[in-house]
Known about the structure:
This protein is mainly α.
Amino acid sequence: xxxxxxxxxxxxxxxxxxxxxSRCIANVALLPLKSNFRGPGPKMTGDDQxxxxxxxxxxxxxxxxxxxxxxxxxxxxxxxLTLYISECLKKLQKGPKKKxxxxxxxxxxxxxxxxxxxxxxxxxxxxxxPNGRAEQDQMRQYFTQLRQETSLRVxxxxxGSDDKPSKWWICFTKKRFxxxxxxxxxx
Length: 187
C-alpha cells in the first residue's frame, strides 16, 4: 500500500517541473491555511481541506511508513506536519487536561526549532536550503504559523469534547514516521 500524498501538489509538465500551484520558499509550498495566526501563509477561504486537515487525516496511515516518495512541494509540508503531529502526541501522552494540553502545545509551537538548512534539521535530504536571511526568516515564520494552527487542531482531534486524550490517538506516540523525529535523540 503506498503512502498518502497531498492533493495540493501542483501539476508537473513534461520535464517534471512543477507548473502553477502555490508560491514556494526554497522548495516548500507556501499553501493557504484556515488560520487566524499571523504568518506568510495565505488565508484560505471556503470549506476545502487545507494542508493541516490533510496531515491530520493521513497521519494514522502515513506514520507507519519508513520511506516516503516526495511528489511535490506540498508533500514536504505534509512530511513536516506529520512529524510535528508526532511531537504533539508525545506531549499529550502524559494525559494533561485539555486546557493544559493547549498551553503545552502552543509553547511547543513557538519554542525554538530547526528549519531546512540548519544542521539539526532531520530532513535536510528532502528540503533545499533557503536562499539568504530573508527567505530563512519567512520559512521560520511559515513553520511557526503551521505549528501554531496544527497544535490547536491536534488538541481538538485528540480531546474532542472530553477532558482526557483519546487512546486511539495517543497509541501512535511510539510510531516514528520515516524513522525521524523533530526533537533530538532520546526526546
